[in-house]
């Protein structure tokens, strides 16, 4: 199974993901407003909670995204299927010129599945799981080692 776009190749998809995220934020804000209307004194506290909430890394729904640097920084790549060799995905900001051995942080925004990053191509060697909804600002010992990925339930 091939990749479904890497980096800026799918700007339209990324933009839609942002729109969905913005909508979710509006919905959350709506909830806060409703609560504030019932109890006006609670409004400042609710606002404070919103400000301190951890922002999610930017990643379209249904994909696992990964970045060239820790903390979801640098250049972003993403995959939505199983991929047995990340050498197939060019990324000029990686030493190898591809995503092979380059990912340093990741966020699984998949709808239903967890994903495993493998040390070697063809789903071999050791690996780490990135569970559905999980973000890892550092891949730890797997930093710059991922060479394939497979989804699982
Ligand atoms: Ca590797």
TrEMBL record:
The keyword Lipid metabolism does not apply. The keyword Cytoplasm does not apply. Keywords: Signal. SUPFAM superfamilies: gamma-Crystallin-like. Residues 1-34 form the signal peptide. InterPro entries: G_crystallin-like. Gene3D superfamilies: Crystallins. This is Peptidase inhibitor family I36.
């Amino acid at each position: 199974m091939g990749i479904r776009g890497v980096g800026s190749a799918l700007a339209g998809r990324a933009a839609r993901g942002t729109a969905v995220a913005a909508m979710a934020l509006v919905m959350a804000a709506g909830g806060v407003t409703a609560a504030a209307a019932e109890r006006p004194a609670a409004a400042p506290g609710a606002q404070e909670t919103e400000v301190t909430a951890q922002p999610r890394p930017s990643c379209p729904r249904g994909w696992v995204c990964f970045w060239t640097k820790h903390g979801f920084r640098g250049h972003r790549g993403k995959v939505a299927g199983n991929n047995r060799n990340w050498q197939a995905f060019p990324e000029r900001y990686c030493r190898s010129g591809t995503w092979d051995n380059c990912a340093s942080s990741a966020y699984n925004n998949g709808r239903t599945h967890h994903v495993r990053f493998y040390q070697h191509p063809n789903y071999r060697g050791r690996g780490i799981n990135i569970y559905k909804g999980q973000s890892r600002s550092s891949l730890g010992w797997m930093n710059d080692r991922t060479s394939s990925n497979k989804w699982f339930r």
